[in-house]
Amino acid sequence: MKIFFLFFILFFSIKGWGASISIQTDSKIYCGNDPNRPNEIYFVKPEDPSRTSTETTSNALTKVYVPIFNSGSYSTDTSNADFSIFTYLDATSKPVNSLPIIGDPSGDKSYVRHYFDISTPNPSYLYAGWINPQNNGQVYILSSSGVSPYYISSLSGNVSNLMVNFYFNNLCEDRYLAEFNPCLNLKFNSTTVNQKTNTVYFFTSQDPDLTPSTPITLKDNEDILAGIYFEYIMSNVVSPDPIPSITTVAKGDGRVNIKYTGKGIQQMKDVIAVKYEGPPGATPTNPNYAEVLMDGGSIASYDNGTNPSGSVILKGLQNNTEIWSRVAYIDFWGFATYFSNDASQIPESIQTFLQEKECYLLSAGFQKEHFILEYFRDFRDKFLLERAWGRTFVQWYYDTAPYYAKNIYNNDLLRFVIRSSAYLAYFIMRYHLYLLFVLFISFCFYFLKRTAIFGK
């Protein structure tokens, strides 16, 4: 028994046993502390999160796309900040760059904020190290002050939701990394557009005296308890072309459906749409985002996918009020192409549809906004209208429905029948796999029961 107890104590006192680091929540990028511009830029949605990692290779990492301000010029002599969807208007309606700036002479440093859950022995320390791309097993401890201690935080055992601010100048202006130029052509006042990828390893150690002057190795390093990798993909590159083109805008109830076509861009993340409350005036035919802002436009639709030709739906619009819209492609860094041509449409209410005999039967049955209506509208826009036979059916529906819509609208029984039918159709279309599974299980029980009866 004593031997077992001693073995137990020895086993759990091994250095680093159970140590881990994991991402607690999505990261955020901040553009410094300038009170004249928004501090927090946006949520970073990491790709391929490593979550908990105790590996000694950088195969498991989390990608973070970092847009960087380049005060030089593009081919159009326009700053890349003018193409960024994080640019905003100041009190004088002038566009203001709100992108991170590396080495800003004003001292207004930019950083990315991470949140970690850490399990570690007490005491231990959290470090950040730059992975040498020429020697993947070599790590340079990063330092912002140039004096010891070089660890980010002193840890007393397990820590939950630890906030860590990683300043870009710590990486780009570190004197020990000067020979590697990790942020070459990305610095303030750079006149060259470029893209750089840097891997940073956040790790825990019980050694408080690790220094940046001598790189450490990852393989078989007993000083490292656990770590997590981040790949910062930093870019000041914009792709203003190719530009999407709006073909048609269909009206709906509190919404419009914008059809667009184009070729897409490299590193494409999304298609966005902006709306104007009035007709665009001073902007060119294909404006950049800063020009869209100055002309009264605002982003009205995100998360529309990466289809270079498709449709975007603007919702929550004021019925019977004409709105104008444009679309653009954006990349992973939030840089947009030039925006498309503008197009307008007037959304109309259910009552207006009925008065004009252009109402949907479901609208007449429900007489108000409802999730069933929302579902079938999306089914129409994203499924039927994308197919030739579907467009034929929709056209037939529009030609036929007005004849019955008014009678349905004014008849309680007919409205009940329409609503009941809509619920049934919704359930079958939305949960058909579950329904088939239930039917299959029921058939199996029925078959087994009959087999048991005839087997007696």
Summarize the structure.
With 456 residues, the protein is α+β, with helices and mostly antiparallel strands. It is 24% helix and 27% strand.
SSE order and pairing:
Blueprint: H1 2-12, E1 20-23, E2 27-30, E3 40-44, E4 61-67, E5 88-89, E6 95-96, E7 111-119, E8 124-131, E9 138-141, E10 153-155, E11 159-167, H2 168-172, E12 195-205, E13 216-217, E14 224-235, E15 245-251, E16 256-261, E17 268-276, H3 289-294, E18 298-301, E19 310-314, E20 323-331, E21 343-345, H4 350-355, H5 361-366, H6 371-382, H7 388-409, H8 412-430, H9 432-454
Parallel strand pairs: 4-14
Antiparallel strand pairs: 1-7, 2-3, 2-7, 5-6, 7-11, 8-9, 8-10, 8-12, 9-13, 12-14, 15-16, 16-19, 17-18, 17-20, 20-21
Q: Report the end-to-end length measured between terminal Cα atoms.
A: 58 Å
What value does the average pLDDT take?
76
Number of domains: 3
Biggest β-sheet strands, sense, barrel = 7 strands, mixed
Please tell me about this protein's structure:
With 456 residues, the protein is an alpha+beta fold. It is built from nine helices and 21 strands. Strands 4, 8, 9, 10, 12, 13 and 14 form a seven-stranded mixed sheet that branches. Strand 8 and strand 9 (138-141) form a beta hairpin.
Features of the shown structure:
flat, alpha+beta, 3 domains, seven-stranded mixed beta sheet, Immunoglobulin-like, 456 residues
